[in-house]
Hints:
Blueprint: H1 7-34, H2 39-47, H3 66-79, H4 81-100, H5 103-114, E1 119-122, E2 138-142, E3 145-156, E4 163-169, E5 179-185, E6 191-196, E7 207-218, E8 222-223, H6 229-265, E9 267-268, E10 271-272, H7 277-305, H8 311-336, H9 338-341, H10 347-358, H11 365-377
Parallel strand pairs: 1-4
Antiparallel strand pairs: 2-3, 3-7, 4-5, 5-8, 6-7, 9-10
Helix pairs in contact: 1-3, 3-4, 3-6, 3-7, 4-5, 4-6, 6-7, 6-8, 6-10, 7-8, 8-10, 8-11
The site of flavin-adenine dinucleotide has 23 residues, from strand 1, strand 3 and helix 11.
Amino acid sequence: MDFSINEEQQELISLAETISKNEIAPRSLEIDKSGVMDEELLHTLKQSGMTQLSVPKEYGGAGLDLLTIAMIAEQLAKGCAGVATVCAANSLASFPILIAGNDEQKKSYFDCLNQGGMSCFALTEPGAGSDAGAVSCRARKVHGGYVLNGTKCFITNAPIADKITLFANTRESGGIRGLTVFLVDRNTPGISIGKEEDKMGIRASATSEIIFDNCFIPAFARIGREGMGFRLAMETLEKSRPVVGAISVGIAQAALENAIHYAHQRKQFGQMIASFEMVQQMIADMVTKTEAARALVYKACWMQMKGDKKAGLFSAMSKCFASDAAMEVTTTAVQVMGGNGYSRENPNEKYMRDAKIMQIYEGTNQVQRLVIANAAMY
Ligand SMILES: Cc1cc2nc3c(=O)[nH]c(=O)nc-3n(C[C@H](O)[C@H](O)[C@H](O)COP(=O)(O)OP(=O)(O)OC[C@H]3O[C@@H](n4cnc5c(N)ncnc54)[C@H](O)[C@@H]3O)c2cc1C
């Protein structure tokens, strides 16, 4: 395995680290309280290229590979997983276009991101979560294009998106074989943003419904062929799950460092709690789980990059293992800090809330275990 990165990539990772430390982390508790990311921070992320991580070189981007994108996501997540999610959602929405879009579609989409535009990946519906094949948002073929009707829910970045990578069904009877992807402009008549979720964690990222009401889109908005949507959704999630793993590692690393720092400050029974063996045991488990998760995430990225036939298995394992590790590490970090860990004045309880979503979005960890068992056993 080769995890080496070039100078240009290292520069971007270091830039992400600096932004995370100086711009994101100091604001993270305030953003968590208000549930709104400030415009100035979003502007910084756009200006520094953090919202354009997936743009290929030929479309004016940095042309980063998946491993570099994951390493950047980890750095951003150390400051705030919600902010990292906002940036990662642009990459998630890019993948179907990268895989099956034509040159014009790529140009229109990546130009938008390069100019500071945002995007979202709209698959989930009230009746279609883990069962993505149950999508009922309808794309009815008409002269010159399609008419969209339906509701998407839990869509990251929906309230700030300029472009929507939409999964809709071109068959009246529904089902996997009708699932089709469209690249839709947010300002198309007939689109409105519905209820915004008041979430437990990753509160820097806005999540909401998108409603399509007799919305006409031209035929050239379709990505790939009709009925290709399910395959594109699966290929996209396979590429992007290691990034969720990387965000999980970033959260775990931040919680770990905070807990170690605290253990060296806090005195009980006349000595630093860091000197108690049971505290050391908690720290040892946290370090081990975080490092193991990071190694699996890197390997999953590497397998994707070389197109290994087991890439899907490693992608699912990295997301599942790293998010479970983040949940355990953040919960233990609260324990190391005792009552102070439970206080909202301290980021550790936020890390714990942020870690929870990593086990749910982009396919729950139960669904990942189905993928893993299936790939390992058959
Ligand atoms: C904050 C947030 C952001 C999100 N962002 C996006 C986004 O940008 N785009 C998007 O399209 N979606 C997004 N989602 C949706 C997310 O991907 C779904 O919530 C997730 O896939 C699970 O679907 P569900 O919530 O309908 O749960 P359900 O599918 O109803 O699952 C409920 C429970 O049943 C279990 N379960 C379901 N099926 C099986 C099975 N076959 N075997 C075993 N157990 C099973 C699940 O593991 C879970 O424990 C987001 C969700 C949240 C909360």
